Each structure stands twice: as C-alpha cells, then as structure tokens.
# Entry
Amino acid sequence: MREARVRQGYTESRIAAAKHFGHEFMMTMPPSAQMPFPLATRAAALEMLQAFLPKAGAGYAQWRNYDFGPGQHTRVSALSPYIRHRLITEEEVVRGVLTQHSPEAAEKFIQEVYWRTYWKGWLEMRPSVWADYLADLDQLGPPNAEAQAAMAGRTGIACFDNWAAELVETGYLHNHARMDGDPASNTLSWRWVAGLQTPGKTYLATPENIATFTQGRFQPEAILHGPAPEGPANPPAQALPAVPKLPDAPFLLLLTEEDLHAESLALRAGQIAGLAGLAPSRDGLSPNVAAFRNAALADGLMRAADHFGQGAPVLDAGALLDHARGLGLTNIVTAYAPVGPIASQLAAFAQQAATQGLALHYVQRAWDRAAWPLATKGFFPFRQHIPSLLPK
Ligand SMILES: Cc1cc2nc3c(=O)[nH]c(=O)nc-3n(C[C@H](O)[C@H](O)[C@H](O)COP(=O)(O)OP(=O)(O)OC[C@H]3O[C@@H](n4cnc5c(N)ncnc54)[C@H](O)[C@@H]3O)c2cc1C
# Structure
C-alpha cells in the first residue's frame, strides 16, 4: 500500500503522519493539498491519550528517548500541541495515567508532564527572561544564510536535515530530536541545551547518542560544538502576579489559544452572560502551527458555546469591547495566560478596556496555583513536590 501511495505522489511524512495521528482521511485528499493537521480537537486529544495510557508506565521509561522516525513516535504521547493549547489539561493527562498505573510505575511520564508545569512556573517568576529573549531576537534580525539553510534542512548533516523536514511537514518533533513553540518549554529548553539555564552545563548532541537513540538510522561522524554561549545569570525569582477574585457581576467569558477547555475552568456557569474568542494576532508562525492553533481555537469555542449555551464569535480587541458593551457587561474574564505573546496581548487589551470602563479578570487553574510557586530553583528540588501535587 505504501508503495502505491508513494507512486501517487504522497510524501513519506504525509503517509507517516496519517498513520501516526490516525487520520486516514488525509489519504483521501490530493497529494498537493495543504494538511489541516493534526486534528486540533479535544476529541482527538482524548482519543490519543486513551491509546497511549497503557504505554505510560515502564514502556515509556524504557523507550521515551528513542526516536524511531516520522510516523513511528508510538512510545511517547505526541500530546504536546494539545497540552500546549489546553485542549486537554496536564491534570487530565496525569489523572488518566493514574487510572492505569501507580505513581511509581508511571513516575517518568508524570515527571515529564511536570517539567512543562515547572518551566511555566519558573518563567512566570522571571518574566524578564522572555523579554530579553524577544529583545535578542529583534537584535539578531532576519536569519542569515546559514540559519536559513538550517531551517530549510539544507545543512548537509543528514540527521539535522531530516528532523528539520519532519518538523516542517508534521509540526511535531520527538523530544530527543527537538528542539513547537511553547514560550516556556521551548525558550527555557533551548537555554538548557545551550548551558544558559544551568550556567556552563550544556546538553549537546554526540554522534554516539544520536546513533543509539535513532537505532543507527543516523550515524553522524564528528559533531563540532562551539563554546557554550555566555549569558546573564538567571534573574532571581520574583513573586507570582496576584490573581484577584472574580467579580460577582455577570461577565463575558473570553477564550484565547492559551486555554481551550473552558468547560473545566472554576467558573459559575450562571455568571457567564456572553462568550467570545480572541482573534489571534500572531503572525510569523509556520502554516502548520497556525493551522493547528486556528483549528484548536475553533474547537474550544464550539464546545464552550455548547456548554454555556452562548454564541461564540472570534473578535479582535475593539470588537470585543463593543460586544461586551452591547451585552451591557463591564467585566471580561479569561483563563490566566502565562508569560508569552498572548499574555502580552491581553495586558494591552486590559489597558484598552480600562480606558472604556471595562475590566479584564483572570481565572487561574488550581494546578498552576499549586505548582508554579514551587519553581523557585532547579527542576530536581521542584520534583520532590510531585507526590504532594498529584491530583487526588
Ligand atoms: C530544545 C527543546 C525545545 C522544546 N520545545 C518544546 C516546545 O516548544 N513545546 C513543548 O511542549 N515542549 C517542548 N520541549 C519539551 C519536549 O521536547 C516536548 O514536550 C516533547 O517532546 C513533546 O512530545 P510528546 O508530547 O510526545 O511528549 P511525552 O514524552 O509524551 O510527554 C508528555 C507531555 O509532557 C510534557 N513534556 C515532556 N517532556 C517535556 C520537557 N522536557 N519539557 C517540558 N514539557 C515536557 C509535554 O507537554 C508532553 O506533551 C522542548 C524540549 C527541548 C529539548
């Protein structure tokens, strides 16, 4: 069958992605069709979680570092884009795992989920690291020829070029090859690799490591690494921003791409007098990442509209304020957005709203409220708290 597909002009990674994400419909579309992928829905995330749960124990601990190639990432969950937008929450994933494994048996997988939470908390207490990263990007300016060749997978380093192609084609990359765009996980993981997060301690690829964890698929000769970049010391942790209590008055519930399971937010349904989605303003995303984000937002709004019995238009800032005023509301509530582009967009929106007598409020998940304050030092001191953080 695969050969027939190749003869029909389907790329290897399209065939692999269809198999990996179980989206056979992708093979009914012409080879040239742009893929809406993966299916950015909560239903797809729950399906993937169910399929993965039996593997979240010893199997995950043993095989999680192995990159078996495009379409073969069956030993890890591939849930990161879904968790990134909270189409499914970290809490649900860990609760799911604990229905089939003891905390000890699934310790490795649970830890990885908490790495994400740790990075979020760490950055939330050191927002200047994100601001400095954006300033450095501005200073760097557009990618030079070498960077462009790397982004296009034309370095001549077989493994790197393959992973670059896989990332562009599927929007996913195995952890061991990684390296999707989450402000905390991506930025801090790259600082970690480069020896900035743990000053002087780099995590650089070696030919032996790549050969081992790709089971010989790649056997690079020597890999020359430059010196670890110099960088400012990590800033001290500052207090987490306070999240005041929600107003008692009715409000407009605003969904953003940061949290797309409004049904599980700690809200009194009776208070929700309107619903809307924040129109994405970020450009510069790869087509697949943007397509995933847009589809995820649509899925989140559709479910929220059903759940809260309200229409859910996608609106930009100005139209949102008009919409709220049109409903006679002066309060807008949204899920707390951690450090990143959406948090910055909401901060600007809050100021704009205030000039028109409207107020933006945040609702924070108990998961973040409990764990983030513990991300004061390295991951290993944070890890000690996981047993007490586990959902009961
Ligand atoms: C350089 C670099 C860049 C990264 N960029 C991102 C990114 O943009 N977005 C992102 O979500 N993760 C990022 N990670 C972390 C990790 O690689 C991915 O979360 C993981 O590979 C996603 O695959 P999965 O869903 O199959 O994970 P699984 O192994 O199945 O783990 C389950 C979930 O736990 C979380 N998780 C697992 N490993 C980590 C980790 N090391 N750090 C933080 N969370 C983790 C993710 O939410 C993941 O979906 C990066 C890691 C490195 C080294």
User: Anything to note?
Assistant: Strands lie at 251-255, 272-278, 314-315, 331-335, 359-363. The chain has a mean pLDDT of 89.
